[in-house]
Task: inverse folding
């Protein structure tokens, strides 16, 4: 027995050339979705009036026809409705896809390059219909709320009661709308994370599976390439979590005085290599620039991201300007931005004379996973990372752009208020091997991490003692066991690593502590988290970094 067609959730297909419509219909039917093929724009509009979950349109179908009726239907949508549209395009830019210019007019458009994989099409359709169902739920809630208001108005005994109930209902409506918007943002975020992480996990798991098969068969040639593939995918995953933490302002920042001009100049060669030879790089650096306060590593990453974005905005070449200057932001400016305080700031800007952005794009530029680049050419996390980094650093980031003229992104970081520390030469690195029975206490609740850390240290000759949580570590600290260094995760179950370190120093004054953390909200600013004799590294870390830190801290 054939399932009844749900008009409000069906896909309407318009792809008059070739077999795209038949292929899409077959894929959707096999996945259990209802779909109908239309021959032209008028018949698509007729079907749309009867109800639709989404439209699947080829770009060439929009050329040469009268788009007025379709645009009118889209404009006449009720406030709760934002019809999803999947636009089938070809690989390439505007020259290959002239109809892509209709994207902003059509509204809620997702581009799908042909030829498309069935999994990609079904994933897009599933996401679109999920969003469409939320719209229908919002419509039904609004209808129910309207009916409730009518019932309340007929039953309230006094005008005062009516006012109170009406106010409560309006607040509820606002909360429903706010929650709907929040869930939409969460849906976009989780969808982007799932897409990117699944790709990275495929690289990691696949390379490990191939390693296992080859070793089982006794084949040991060319294993380095498989190992490199897995490590590359793992590093990309680490970079994704880093950017997400940056956007959410939860990364661990190591803020310090930064000579921004020196930092920009030191990156000059890298920036030059990152752009095309058709792009002229111009550095306009204020020679009387103040000292900024920021995490230099995050600042370098932000500058590189801005330069790459500017490069991509100038596919035919142009001029890219990196500029620094001193800026004083008064209360008239900072009052519009809750995290900003009036005062002195050091400004770093990147300007291109490329394609520019419309206001609709600027308003979403800092959203995670939002990108105008073709599929596979951008994750949409670069600007969101810069946004989170600026806010967490007590700074600000702004975009100024004009279509056809170019774009300027300006990053404001607070001026450093103290005395700039003098440069001290770093001693030659110490040998990583243990000396004289040095012992490390490892406190980590994840068994895999604990085994890896203890194995690495053991290979270098260190003695070690393990604990899975703070409660297990306290008796060891309150004993005669030799401990030269404690390595502790920050996010332990129960008592956290920072609290454990405080109690441990009561038992052992001067206890040296190396924190390892994947994410710890209270460790977001290291300067307020670490006391003398404490350092921190973030997961995932290389074992070279771990052993160097262990040797450095024990040697101090």
Result:
């Amino acid at each position: 027995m054939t399932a009844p067609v749900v008009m409000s959730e069906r896909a309407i297909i318009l792809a008059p050339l070739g077999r795209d419509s038949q292929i899409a219909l077959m894929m959707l039917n096999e996945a259990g979705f209802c779909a109908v093929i239309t021959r032209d724009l008028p018949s698509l509009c007729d079907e749309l009036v009867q109800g639709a979950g989404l439209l699947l349109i080829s770009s060439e179908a929009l050329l040469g026809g009268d788009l007025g009726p379709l645009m009118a239907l889209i404009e006449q949508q009720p406030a709760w409705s934002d019809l999803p549209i999947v636009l089938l395009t070809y690989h390439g830019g505007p020259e290959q896809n002239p109809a892509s210019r209709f994207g902003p007019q059509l509204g809620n458009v997702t581009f799908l390059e042909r030829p498309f994989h069935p999994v990609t099409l079904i994933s897009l359709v599933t996401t679109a219909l999920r969003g469409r169902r939320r719209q229908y739920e919002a419509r039904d809630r609004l209808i129910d709320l309207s009916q409730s208001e009518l019932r309340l108005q007929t039953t309230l005994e006094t005008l005062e009661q009516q006012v109170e109930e009406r106010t409560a209902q309006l607040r509820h409506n606002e909360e429903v709308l706010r929650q709907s918007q929040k869930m939409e943002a969460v849906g976009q975020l989780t969808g982007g994370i799932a897409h990117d992480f699944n790709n990275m996990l495929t690289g990691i798991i696949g390379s490990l599976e191939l390693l296992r098969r080859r070793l089982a068969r006794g084949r040991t040639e060319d294993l380095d390439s498989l190992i490199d593939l897995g490590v590359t995918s793992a590093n990309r995953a680490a970079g994704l979590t880093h950017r997400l933490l940056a956007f959410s302002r939860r990364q661990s920042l190591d803020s310090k005085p930064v000579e921004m001009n020196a930092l920009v100049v030191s990156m000059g060669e890298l920036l030059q290599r990152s752009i095309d030879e058709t792009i002229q790089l111009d550095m306009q650096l204020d020679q009387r620039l103040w000292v900024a306060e920021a995490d230099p590593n995050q600042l370098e990453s932000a500058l590189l991201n801005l330069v790459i974005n500017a490069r991509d905005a100038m596919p035919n070449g142009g001029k890219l300007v990196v500029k620094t200057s001193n800026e004083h932001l008064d209360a008239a400016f900072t009052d519009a931005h809750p995290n900003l305080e009036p005062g002195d700031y050091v400004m770093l800007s990147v300007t291109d004379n490329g394609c520019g952005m419309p206001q609709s794009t600027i308003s979403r530029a800092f959203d995670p996973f939002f990108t105008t680049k073709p599929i596979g050419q951008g994750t949409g996390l670069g600007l969101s990372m810069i946004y989170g980094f600026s806010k967490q650093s007590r700074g600000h980031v702004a975009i100024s752009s004009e279509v056809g003229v170019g774009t300027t992104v300006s990053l404001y970081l607070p001026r450093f208020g103290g005395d700039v520390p003098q440069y001290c030469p770093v001693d030659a690195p110490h040998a990583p091997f243990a000396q004289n029975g040095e012992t490390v206490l490892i406190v980590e609740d994840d068994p895999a991490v604990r085994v890896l850390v203890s194995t690495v240290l053991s290979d270098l000759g260190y003695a070690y003692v393990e604990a899975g949580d703070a409660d297990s570590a306290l008796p060891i600290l309150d004993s005669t066991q030799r401990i030269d260094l404690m390595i502790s995760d920050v996010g332990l179950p129960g008592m956290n690593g920072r609290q454990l370190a405080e109690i441990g120093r009561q038992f052992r004054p001067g206890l040296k502590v190396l924190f390892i953390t994947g994410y710890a909200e209270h460790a977001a600013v290291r300067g307020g988290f670490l006391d003398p004799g404490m350092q921190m590294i973030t997961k995932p870390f290389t074992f070279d970094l771990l052993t160097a830190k262990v040797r450095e801290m024990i040697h101090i």
About this structure: Residues 451 and 466 are 9 Å apart (CA to CA). The domain at 439-555 is CATH 3.40.50.2300 (Rossmann fold).
